[in-house]
């Protein structure tokens, strides 16, 4: 029986979250924390899903039950990814999927995207399919769309390709554009509030705010788009001070959209006071994580976050995206 392990990195959104849902660009970076998915072929028609990190450690179902749309349950991303992988391959098999994640779930670090793209890669490889990274990114985005209803390609593309990407969403996923940004290093400290939150709920809250105050919210979304474009130029010219300043402005506009909370704010200000060049929430907000840009004072910033009672870790950009693990 064939066994394949694939892994994919978590990500941070550097600029442009929420605005990207309305067609504006985003800048995101894969970070050096990975999700590992092992797929083992079975001789019967059972699907077994296992993860020590989830509250339901194991779920088993019959292959025929996979096609049913299930947007709840902890293994929903894995099930959808399996279904799309079987569709793409035109064949299916009983299978055991084991997830080993080094990424806290529902924290804004893209754990579900990393699970989706590594499941797709492991299962398609197990079925003997040749698949490009572009295709895994596109299928991964389709998994998120099916499970969440609305999702930009940011998380799945960054996890699939790795590195730093400038993402310009198109009218449909075939038209999304990705530009790779090359930087020598981007030292970050990630602060985790410990508050799990739902991306869908936060995206909905911005939609409702926009429905009520469109003339006010639309310019904020456009400004975030402009900040992201300007940040791309700052990366290209190596203007670290500018990157930090733009992060701070971006954070202020996310506050204005109502997706920040007191704990995130506290971590952002503590980081800036400890010498970060810039700091902002990352991802959907409402809890989850923030990032601080720390070419210097990295330890002081991490200590300041820890002093607020939250977890901090330093992160570096992972150049490698999704990959099949050897042996
Ligand atoms: O919560 P995260 O890290 O998955 O980020 C969501 C980013 C949003 O722009 C809010 C939503 C999206 O689909 O891009």
CATH-derived topology of the largest domain: Ribosomal Protein S5, domain 2
Helical stretch count?
Answer: 9
What percent of the residues sit in helical stretches (DSSP H or I)?
40-55%
Mean pLDDT, to the nearest integer, reads 93
Helix and strand run: EEEEHEHHHEEEHHHHEEHEE
Helix/sheet category: alpha+beta
* Rg over CA atoms: 19 Å
Architecture per CATH nomenclature, i.e. the level-2 architecture of the largest domain: 2-Layer Sandwich
The CATH class assignment of the largest domain is: Alpha Beta
Would you count the extended β strands for me?
12
Contiguous runs where pLDDT drops below 50 for at least 5 residues: none
Strand content: 15-25%
Biggest sheet, open or closed, and with what strands and sense?
A: 8 strands, mixed
Features:
327 residues, binds (3R)-3-hydroxy-3-methyl-5-(phosphonooxy)pentanoic acid, 8-stranded mixed sheet, 9 helices, Alpha-Beta Plaits, 4-stranded antiparallel sheet, alpha+beta, Ribosomal Protein S5, domain 2
């Amino acid at each position: 029986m064939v066994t394949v392990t694939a892994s994919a990195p978590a990500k941070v959104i550097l600029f442009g979250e929420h605005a990207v849902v309305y067609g504006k660009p985003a800048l995101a970076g894969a970070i050096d924390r990975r999700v590992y998915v092992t797929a083992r072929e079975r001789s019967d028609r059972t699907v077994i899903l296992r993860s020590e990190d989830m509250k339901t450690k194991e779920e088993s179902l019959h292959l025929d039950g996979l096609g049913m749309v299930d947007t709840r349950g902890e293994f929903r991303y894995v099930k959808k990814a399996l279904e799309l992988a079987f569709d793409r391959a035109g064949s299916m098999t009983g299978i055991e999927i084991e997830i080993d994640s080094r990424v806290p779930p529902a924290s804004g670090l893209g754990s579900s995207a990393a699970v989706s793209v590594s499941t797709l890669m492991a299962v398609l490889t197990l079925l003997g399919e040749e698949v490009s990274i572009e295709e895994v990114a596109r299928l991964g985005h389709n998994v998120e769309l099916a499970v969440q209803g609305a999702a930009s390609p940011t998380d799945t593309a960054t996890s699939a390709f790795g590195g730093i990407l400038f993402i310009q969403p198109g009218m449909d996923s075939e038209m999304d554009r990705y530009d790779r940004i090359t930087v020598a290093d981007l030292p970050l400290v990630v602060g985790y509030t410990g508050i799990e939150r739902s991306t869908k709920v936060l995206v909905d809250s911005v939609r409702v705010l926009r429905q009520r105050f469109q003339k006010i919210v639309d310019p904020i979304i456009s400004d975030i788009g402009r900040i992201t474009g300007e940040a791309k130029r700052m990366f290209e010219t190596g203007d670290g001070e500018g990157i930090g300043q733009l992060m701070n402005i971006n954070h202020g506009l996310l506050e204005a959209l109502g997706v920040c909370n007191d704990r995130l704010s506290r971590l952002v200000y503590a980081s800036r006071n400890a010498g970060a060049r810039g700091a902002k929430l990352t991802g959907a907000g409402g809890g989850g994580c923030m990032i601080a840009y720390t070419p210097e004072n990295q330890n002081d910033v991490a200590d300041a976050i820890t002093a607020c009672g939250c977890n901090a870790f330093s992160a570096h950009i992972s150049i490698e995206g999704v990959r099949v693990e050897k042996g």
